[in-house]
């Protein structure tokens, strides 16, 4: 029985050294502001931005923007982080009940989203070179989740993502990941420019999305993007009006509000009294 215990002690020592090394590598270049690390500010922003705690979200956003471009390499590294080979090997030899205490789980999703929300907090303050770097992650990263998180981060840039319009349009046409397509559709409604490009692309994609069965989130978000473009999206009115009797209530409601925003001619925009 001595050998297994010696092996276990050795393995735990390896864990400690390995985890310390990985933490040092990841955090050695992490900027901070007012004594708090960038990752902590990003998590604070994520926690409070959509929970109604505006003051904390604004404080975190201001801190991240103060750090500015200096923090972008760290945030991109977080988005692109991959599984630790060391942790994977150790999970095979360390009893599962100890995995949590020894932090052998990768928590990749949490780390990646911390990076994305840091980019989101930067918004229009993000340096221009963040756009091609995010596109590179979306198009080349081997992990599906990193690709999606990068697409989310890219569309949160809003009008600052204008240089990515051709990429978003191409995503709608060719990307096989429905979640990345959805982020691209949302982005085209947020950039606030080039409606002569974005509106035809959204109309074409909406026609496709409406054929995708019960998963209607792509269609709903595309309609909402057309609503945001407002009067510059008048070319979409025939298609949107045709949805007044769509079987899905979310689609009907989204189409109603989109037509209302695009066509200012009157309240009864479908030519009937809405029943939703």
- H/E element sequence: HEEHHHHHHHHHHHHH
Helix count, per DSSP? Answer: 14
- Which ranges are low-confidence, i.e. pLDDT below 50, for 5 or more consecutive residues? 19-27, 272-276
Cross-sheet strand order for the largest sheet:
1-2
Query: Given the C-alpha coordinates, what overall shape results?
Result: globular
Calculate the mean pLDDT score and round it.
85
Count of individual beta strands:
2
Number of domains: 2
Structural class: mainly alpha
Q: Which percent bin holds the helix content? A: 55-70%
- What is the radius of gyration? 23 Å
Strand residue content = under 5%
Could you tell me how far the N terminus lies from the C terminus, measured between alpha carbons in angstroms? 71 Å
What does this 3D model show about the protein?
With about 280 residues, the protein is mainly α. The protein folds into two domains: about 1-150, no CATH class; about 155-275, Leucine-rich Repeat Variant (Alpha Horseshoe), CATH 1.25.10.10. Helices cover about 65% and strands about 0% of the residues. Strands 1-2 form a two-stranded antiparallel sheet. Strand 1 and strand 2 form a beta hairpin. The radius of gyration is 23 Å and the shape is globular. It starts with a helix and ends in a 14-residue tail after the last helix. The relative contact order is 0.07. Residues about 20-25 and about 270-275 have low confidence and may be disordered.
């Amino acid at each position: 029985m001595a050998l297994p215990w010696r092996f276990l002690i050795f393995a735990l020592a390896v864990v400690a050294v390995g985890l310390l090394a990985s933490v040092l590598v990841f955090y050695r270049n992490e900027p901070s502001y007012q004594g708090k690390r960038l990752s902590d500010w990003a998590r604070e922003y994520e926690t409070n931005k959509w929970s109604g705690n505006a003051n904390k979200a604004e404080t975190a956003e201001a801190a991240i923007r103060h750090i500015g471009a200096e923090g972008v390499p760290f945030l991109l590294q977080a988005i692109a982080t991959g599984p630790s080979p060391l942790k994977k090997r150790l999970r095979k030899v360390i009893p599962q009940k100890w995995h949590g205490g020894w932090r052998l789980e990768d928590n990749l999703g949490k780390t990646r989203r911390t990076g994305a929300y840091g980019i989101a907090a930067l918004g229009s303050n993000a340096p221009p070179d963040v756009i091609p770097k995010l596109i590179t992650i979306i198009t080349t990263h081997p992990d599906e989740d990193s690709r999606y998180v990068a697409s989310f981060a890219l569309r949160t840039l809003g009008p600052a993502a204008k240089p990515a319009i051709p990429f978003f349009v191409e995503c709608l046409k060719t990307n096989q990941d429905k979640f990345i397509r959805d982020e691209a559709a949302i982005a085209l409604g947020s950039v606030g420019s080039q409606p002569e490009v974005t509106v035809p692309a959204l109309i074409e994609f909406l026609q496709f999305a409406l054929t995708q069965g019960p998963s209607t989130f792509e269609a709903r978000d595309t309609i909402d993007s057309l609503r945001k473009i407002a009067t510059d999206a008048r070319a979409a009115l025939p298609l949107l009006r045709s949805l007044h009797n769509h079987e899905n209530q979310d689609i009907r409601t989204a189409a109603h509000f989109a037509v209302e925003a695009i066509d200012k001619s009157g309240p009864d925009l479908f030519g009937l009294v809405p029943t939703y």
